[in-house]
Design a protein that fits this description.
5-stranded parallel sheet, two-stranded antiparallel sheet, 36 helices, globular
């Protein structure tokens, strides 16, 4: 019996996700297109949208939703054949139409005799026939079907066919759970365009983080908060995890109910580890074979993943939060604390201090938390696991190591002024020379970036003239590029620390030498020994350079991934910056106007968090995006950004903001444009910022010249091309084509006097 409901394509709904739909609709030589992800990841929604788009393009589509009663080959083939009937590929008079038990061979023979017209076959929920004769028939169908017939499969787990062979031979096109994960900008778009209940950018980012971009989690949150005010929905984000009744019900019914009892207990107890390995799980449970169980959970897509090819595993954040709640419900509060205590001791023994701190905090063993933070007090990630553990305020206030962790957390949030106060508090709590020296050193770096007094930077360079911290040359360069000196240097060797290379490239960016900065940043990205902070900053800087140089790719996607990686690394200030830049990029490339409002909200959130640098940088990005998106907009944002940088005692980035403002005013023939451009050009020349000087001089030329023609590439550089585009947008003129100029020969590049090579600065001997 063939049930027609299984063959009815769902109406397309949800958010139009171009990055996924276009991938599946693009021509391909693959034998199989596979969408495999856990329950509630949005597989069916994506398949339905692909089917609708294919039909709109004139491609016949056969839809078949597989169910558990299709495990026999005749039942599977009968439904597949009926699904194919509307396409021009199937002989309607074949055996299955007369009720005989036809098999996959009969179907393939009929398809071989077909017209050969292209068609798309979509099979959803293929996991329902795992390990059955129907799945073996599907494998034969995929391998032997005609090439003009494309097969798209949706499943919670990879089908039992030779997937590795298809992957190696390039005959598999695969969409995974990570691909289906909603990015923060997609969450914003979802709540605006589909749910009609907008979320602020920060709430959308927090919701993305809490749910891991899980589609069902987002839908459940919408159902739980529908009709509430924006403020109430923002507060409800923190309650979404495993404590949400809707989420608990979904996971219990659609995930855990399918597991044997021993697997459920395995998940329940091992969730206390956080970082999972077979050996850790064996030691915790007093058993063997945990590695095989973890491999099975990952293979079955049960919210278990591995980023290092099966060496370590982790549970999806939503599942883990639910399991932690269920652990307390099943074993009681005291029993749950015992499991956390045992897990913490094991994690500490294998060197997983950050996970151990979290487990000890869940066990409410505050003494062990303080002891671990004291042991790790001087490490690069010492503050990462600090006070995001809901520690009692009195414990943090009176414990020196927890106070130090709190200060480091404030640094990671960008709240530098508050961090300075917390460092002083920590220093006062322990009269131990090394501890107090660490506090003073870290406090001095934070104070240097927060201070507007030059005397506050006297600590920056030691008696030998070397910088005490990698970021010090960058901070000094924000004040005046000639504040530090650098000899004419050869190509930077890879033996130089990644932090110093990062500082070098950031100074080059402020000078306007994007080509040199990009080359050095690539070496930081390729350095596996680089700290997460340095790699994330390098990735963010490379993305910005690509935007300025009009590079291709998906900058909004890259910025969203950087924001997520920064959140996972415990670096909220980088996450805010990447997310705000992503909003600005989307606003500038034709997204709805509310994207600019979202960017402004992120600026406000930076201010509330005390992140003055993030607010200034995002103000500048929003001003550029607004001008590109709406040439009629007033360029007031540039003046605001310049004022913010000046309050931070950072005149160099302020010069860039003023130069861009001069470009906008000159392109629109506003009074005072020439005066502003001339003043900025002079200040940039004095500060040796050639990039800002070139922008200001080009703006001056536009302001003083007749309306036409618009100057094209005054100096032939990437920044000048960006200027041309910006001025043309502001003046609402046709954008001139970019001229390709030959790279200067070596003798020409060295005609400048010594010490003034393109405004580069002499850096300390540590380089």
């Amino acid at each position: 019996m063939v049930l027609a409901e299984k063959l009815r394509r769902p109406e397309p709904g949800g958010l139009h996700r171009r990055r996924l739909e276009e991938l599946l609709l693009a021509p391909s030589a693959s034998r199989l297109d596979l969408v495999v992800a856990p329950p509630g990841s949005g597989k069916t929604t994506l398949l339905a949208r692909v089917a609708a788009a294919a039909e709109a393009a004139g491609l016949p589509v056969a839809w078949y939703r597989v169910t558990a009663d299709d495990v026999s080959e005749p039942a599977f083939i009968a439904h597949l054949a009926r699904a194919l009937r509307p396409t021009p590929d199937l002989d309607a008079g074949h055996a299955w139409e007369t009720g005989d038990d036809a098999g996959v061979t009969d179907l393939l023979q009929s398809l071989d005799a077909s017209t050969g017209a292209p068609a798309l076959v979509i099979l959803d929920d293929v996991h329902e026939i795992a390990g059955s004769a129907a799945e073996r028939a599907l494998e034969q169908f995929v391998q032997l079907r005609p090439h003009h017939l494309r097969v798209l499969v949706g499943s919670r787990r990879p089908p039992e066919m030779n997937i590795p062979r298809l992957r190696v031979s390039g005959q598999l096109r695969e969409i995974t759970s990570d691909d289906l994960r909603f990015r923060s900008w997609e969450v914003e778009e979802l709540f605006v365009s589909v749910f009609r209940e907008p979320l602020s950018p920060e709430s959308a980012a927090a919701l993305t983080r809490r749910t891991g971009g899980w589609a069902a989690g987002l839908q459940l949150f919408h159902l739980a908060t529908s009709g509430r005010s924006a403020v109430d929905r923002g507060r409800a984000v923190d309650d979404l995890g495993g404590r949400s009744k809707l989420v608990r019900s979904y996971l219990a019914r659609n995930v855990l109910a399918e597991l044997p009892e021993e697997r459920r207990h395995f998940l329940l107890r091992t969730c206390t580890l956080g970082t999972l390995t077979g050996q850790l799980c064996d030691s915790l449970l007093g058993t063997t074979g945990s590695s095989a169980i973890l491999d099975e959970l990952e293979h079955r897509q049960l919210f278990t993943s591995s980023d290092d090819d099966g060496q370590t595993f982790r549970y999806h954040e939503v599942l883990r939060t639910h399991l932690e709640w269920a652990l307390v419900q099943e074993y009681g509060a005291a029993g749950a604390r015992e499991w956390y205590s045992r897990s913490a001791a094991l994690l500490e023994a294998v060197g997983e201090q950050r996970a151990a701190v979290r487990a000890y905090a869940r066990a409410e063993d505050w003494g062990a938390v303080g002891r671990l933070l004291q042991i790790r007090g001087t490490g690069p990630d010492a503050g990462a696991a600090g006070t995001d553990l809901l520690l009692p305020p009195a414990v943090v206030e009176h414990d020196p190591w927890l106070s130090l962790a709190e200060a480091r957390r404030r640094v990671r949030e960008g709240a530098l002024t508050a961090a300075v106060d917390r460092f002083r508090r920590a220093e006062s709590l322990l009269d131990e020379p090394d501890f107090r020296d660490n506090c003073r050193r870290e406090r001095s770096v934070a104070a240097m970036w927060a201070s507007t007094d030059a005397a506050g930077m006297s600590w920056a360079v030691d008696g030998r003239g070397e910088a005490r911290h990698w970021s010090i040359p960058v901070r000094l360069a924000t004040r005046r590029m000639v504040a530090i000196r650098q000899p004419v240097r050869p190509q930077l060797p890879s033996s130089i620390p990644a932090s110093n290379r990062l500082a070098h490239s950031m100074i080059d960016m402020m000078a306007g030498d994007l080509r040199e900065a990009g080359a050095v940043l690539e070496t930081v990205l390729a350095d596996r020994s680089a700290e997460s902070t340095h790699r994330l900053l390098a990735d963010l800087a490379v993305t910005c350079i690509d935007l300025i140089r009009c590079g291709g790719g998906d900058p909004a996607g890259r910025l969203g991934q950087i924001a997520l990686d920064a959140e996972l690394a415990g670096l909220p200030w980088i996450a805010h910056l990447a997310r705000g830049l992503g909003e600005a990029v989307l606003a500038a490339t034709g997204s709805p106007a509310w994207r600019l409002t979202a960017c402004v909200h992120l600026i406000d959130e930076c201010e509330e968090a005390g992140d003055a640098w993030g607010a200034a940088l995002l103000t500048l990005a929003a001003a550029v995006a607004e001008l590109v998106a709406d040439p009629a907009a007033e360029p007031d944002g540039f003046a605001d950004a310049a004022a913010r940088f000046n309050r931070l005692d950072a005149p160099v980035p302020a010069l860039w903001a003023q130069a861009l403002q001069a470009c906008a005013l000159a392109g629109r023939r506003r009074p005072g444009a020439a005066e502003l451009a001339g003043r900025v050009a002079g200040a940039a020349r004095a500060a040796q910022v050639p990039g800002a000087q070139a922008l200001a001089q080009a703006a001056l030329a536009v302001a003083q010249a007749p309306h036409d023609p618009l100057p094209t590439n005054p100096t032939g550089g990437d920044l000048d091309h960006a200027l041309t585009l910006l001025v043309a947008a502001a003046a609402d003129r046709p954008v001139p084509r970019r001229r390709r100029t030959a790279r200067p020969t070596q003798p020409q590049r060295h005609r400048r006097p010594p010490g003034r090579r393109c405004g580069r600065i002499r850096k300390p001997a540590s380089y």
